[in-house]
Design goal:
The protein is α/β, with parallel strands linked by helices. It has 2 domains: 205 residues, Quinone Oxidoreductase, Chain A, domain 1 (Alpha-Beta Complex), CATH 3.90.180.10; 127 residues, NAD(P)-binding Rossmann-like Domain (Rossmann fold), CATH 3.40.50. Helices cover 29% and strands 25% of the residues. Strand 8, helix 7 and strand 9 form a beta-alpha-beta unit. Helix 6 packs across helix 7 and helix 6 packs across helix 12. The longest helix is centred in the middle third of the chain and has 13 residues.
């Protein structure tokens, strides 16, 4: 089969590799589409992992082979593949902090070499632990593979929205109107809250309004805090969601968040970034700082339900489609996006 093999920093090799052999409790899935995630880009561009590896994890496809011991699944079924499933037994899992579980963090779906997701290939093997514990999600009729590939990123954003306890009557600031920021806007609206978005690009400001933001502003607007106070009865937003790794965005969110509000870090900052902060700002205003990393098993079913029932318009997030052989070009487009670049999807040869 064909796969994009990570051979070193910024080195992708489109090559022939063996189709993974399936064990008795495992399933082989023919990849039909896989989303290009910022975490994939980071793994390709920086020396974080030893090569060779095959990345890619926002995967939807068709079961092509099932192991002899597998129950409840058969060849031909359309499925979403979840690459993270927690153990459900450790202290983290028992406290519903699933993304800190060692089993969760140990990626085991693979298309060969050290297991690393495996979606950037024609076939990916799903291990028994994931098959048995909810890591395969059937795709209903009427839902495309493209739409289904959004279940995992929707889960990640949904986890953050639930953690911040966003609900009806609230106003939420979303910093950054890229694909994640736009999904946040949709989910904020789904839960009955108002969304205010910021971005640097006029096209993305307009896109934020198109997908449901009540207001959208240039992030460089010096009057942004006062404009947001005007929209919130002089109080500021209940919650700010940081969808961009920007120190300026954080301090802007701090200025725009009301007393007793929340600021949630969703985008991952570079490790060398340190944000100087007077703790009395948090103490006197009772502002909560929180982080949300990756997905949550607890909201997995809800994420699938939201996508499959078209409660949010994931089709509006797709801007680019690339063949698997052109993954390098897709990464380049993501790193140097145009004003119209949002979500990029990758397809095995001939499937675009």
């Amino acid at each position: 089969m064909k796969a994009q093999v990570f051979r070193g920093v910024n080195q992708l090799s489109y090559e022939e590799v063996p189709v993974p052999e399936v064990g008795p409790d495992e399933v082989l899935v023919q990849v039909r589409v896989v989303g290009l995630c910022q975490s994939d880009i980071k793994k390709i561009m920086y020396p974080l992992y030893e090569p060779p590896r095959i990345f890619g994890h926002e995967t939807a496809g068709i079961i092509s082979q099932v192991g002899s011991d597998v129950k409840g699944w058969q060849s031909g079924q359309r499925v979403v593949v979840m690459h993270h499933i927690p153990c459900m037994r450790c202290d983290y899992c028992l406290n519903e902090n699933f993304s800190m579980c060692d089993t969760y963090k140990n990626v085991t779906t693979t298309a060969g070499f050290a297991p690393s997701g495996g979606g950037f290939a024609e076939y990916v093997k799903v291990p028994g632990h994931i098959v048995r514990n909810g890591g395969l999600i059937p795709i209903p009729d009427g839902v495309t593979f493209e739409q289904a590939s959004f279940v995992e990123p929707t889960n990640c954003c949904l986890k953050a929205v639930k953690k911040a306890q966003i609900g009806p009557g609230q106003t939420v600031l979303v910093t950054g109107a890229g694909p994640i920021g736009l999904m946040f806007i949709m989910l904020v609206k789904y839960f009955g809250a108002r969304a205010i978005a910021t971005d640097l690009l006029p096209a993305r400001i307009e896109k934020a309004l198109q997908v449901g933001a009540d207001a959208a502003f240039d992030a460089r607007d010096a009057d942004l805090p006062s404009k947001i106070r005007d929209l919130t009865g002089g109080l500021g937003v209940h919650t700010s969601l940081l969808a961009v790794p920007s120190e300026k965005a954080f301090f802007q969110a701090l200025d725009c968040t009301r007393k007793g509000g929340k600021i949630l870090f969703f985008a991952e900052f570079p490790d060398e970034v340190e944000i100087p902060l007077n703790p009395n700002v948090l103490y006197r205003r009772e502002v909560d700082l929180m982080g949300s990393y990756s997905s949550s098993f607890r909201v997995q079913a809800l994420a699938a339900d939201i996508v499959f029932n078209k409660c949010i318009d994931v089709d509006a997030l797709v801007s680019d489609r690339y063949n698997l052989r052109d993954l390098g070009a897709a990464v380049e487009r993501a790193v140097r996006p145009s004003a119209e670049t949002y979500k990029i999807l990758i397809y095995p040869e001939g499937k675009v």
